[in-house]
Structure formats: C-alpha cells, structure tokens
Design goal:
The protein is of the alpha/beta class. The chain contains 7 helices and 10 strands. A hairpin with a 2-residue loop joins strand 9 and strand 10. The longest helix is centred in the last third of the chain and has 16 residues.
Length: 242
C-alpha cells in the first residue's frame, strides 16, 4: 500500500433493497487526508452508500475497499468511525459517561474525552444527561464518540443537520482541521451551500453518481456560478428524471 493509494475505493457498486436498485454501478475513489462532500437530495442513496463503505450494507455487486482492506473487515474497526443520522449514544447517561464508556470500548486514552468535548463544543454540557439535550446537541455527542481514538477515516452522515449556522460553521472548521491533520472525511449533506466547504464533491441523484470533482471543476464544467445551479444543470443534462 503506497501513500498515494486512496482511502476509499468503490468499484462498480450496486445495491438492491426491496426490489429497488438503490445504488447503480458506482465507481469512485476518495483520496487520503481529504474532505469529500457527498451531496444530493434525501432518498438518493447517500446513507446506503455510507453503510456500504463501513461494511454494514449487503451489496448486490461490486467492491468497496477502505485503507486497502475490504469494507467492514476486522482490521478496520479501530481505524474507521461512522456517525449515523440518528444519535447513537445512551440517553440515560451523562455526556461524559457516554464518552468514557466509548473510549474504554475503543481503547482510546482517557484524555481523549476532554479533547473531543472541546472539539464539538460540549465542554459546558459534559455533566448533562444526554437524553435531556437538544437534538443538535445529542448529534454532537455522537460525533464526539466518533472522534475518540483519532480514527483515520470518518464517515459522517448528515452531521450538521438541525444545527444553527454558527455551530455548522464551527463543525466544518473542525472537519477541515482533521483533514489537514491527515484524516480522511466523507461527509454527507442535502444542503448544497455546504458543498463549498469541501475539497471534492460526489453529487448523487437516484442512486447514480453525477459528479466526482472539485467545486471549482464542477462550476467550470457546468458554467454556473453556484453549486446548486450546477447540480440542477447536471440533472437536466442527465437521463435521470427530476
């Protein structure tokens, strides 16, 4: 495995659920140490793709490799973190208790708890009961658990949904710092204005990949001034129904 090898490599991936083709022959790579945005409307297959990348989705065909290993394989467990849309923490525990528990499970140093609390802006709520927090705060507790142990790849499904603009800005700044430090982040969103915060974009529609390029390349190719207009132009030019 060379340093130039991608963090994530997806080759001709297809997923069928309930007789419906959710992902249709996707092929792309995600470079190491990058911040890649996975964007598209709700229901386009973003969450299914993320589940395939972390190895918890049954696939019909194709392959997914992460850090040179088959997705979901045992060697990847301490190296890959996944945050789902629904908060995946214990509601009856205090925030700090949740983090101490997950740090012990992951084998992360105890000092990580204080670090991740600060990174997600929850230091002042460390002793709060998690179930009594707002939805956005609970989502940040889940994100904090994912940051424990400094994973090499973070797969984040709509991590900024429901957050106010200041918190969204702060979390995207954190994501950029993590990527600058060598981590690889794949972050999904259906909010097109978040695309400008990413180094690269994967734009999806109806289970298909419409674009895999930088924001600047996308704007230049479509001759549009903003990402949303560029995405709409791609839809109009594709065979996928609007």
């Amino acid at each position: 495995m060379t340093a130039a090898a991608p963090a994530i490599a997806v080759d001709r991936l297809s997923v069928v659920r309930g007789g419906h083709r959710v992902l249709d022959d996707l092929t792309f790579t995600v470079p190491r140490g990058s911040l890649t945005g996975l964007l598209g409307p709700s229901g386009c297959g973003k969450s299914t793709l993320m589940r395939a990348i972390v190895g918890v989705q049954i696939v019909e065909s194709g392959t997914v490799e992460v850090l040179g290993e088959p997705a979901g394989s045992a060697p990847l467990r301490p190296r890959v973190a996944y945050v789902t849309q629904a908060p995946s923490v214990y509601a009856d525990l205090r925030v700090v208790e949740n983090l101490r528990y997950f740090a012990a499970v992951l084998g992360a140093p105890p000092s990580d708890v204080e670090r991740v609390l600060e990174e997600v802006g929850l230091t002042a709520h460390a002793d709060a009961v998690t179930g009594e927090l707002s939805g956005g705060q609970r989502a940040r507790v889940s994100l904090a658990t994912a940051l424990l142990g400094a994973p090499e790849v973070l797969v984040l499904d709509e991590p900024t949904v429901g957050l106010d603009p200041v918190l969204r800005r702060d979390l995207w700044a954190l994501f950029n710092r993590l990527a600058a430090g060598g981590a690889t982040l794949l972050v999904s969103s259906h909010v097109m204005d978040e695309a400008r915060r990413c180094e690269r974009l994967l734009l999806m529609r109806e289970g298909r990949l419409l674009a895999d390029e930088t924001p600047a390349e996308l704007l230049a190719r479509t001759k549009r001034a903003d990402i949303e207009d560029a995405f709409l132009a791609l839809i109009e030019d594709s065979k996928v129904p609007a």
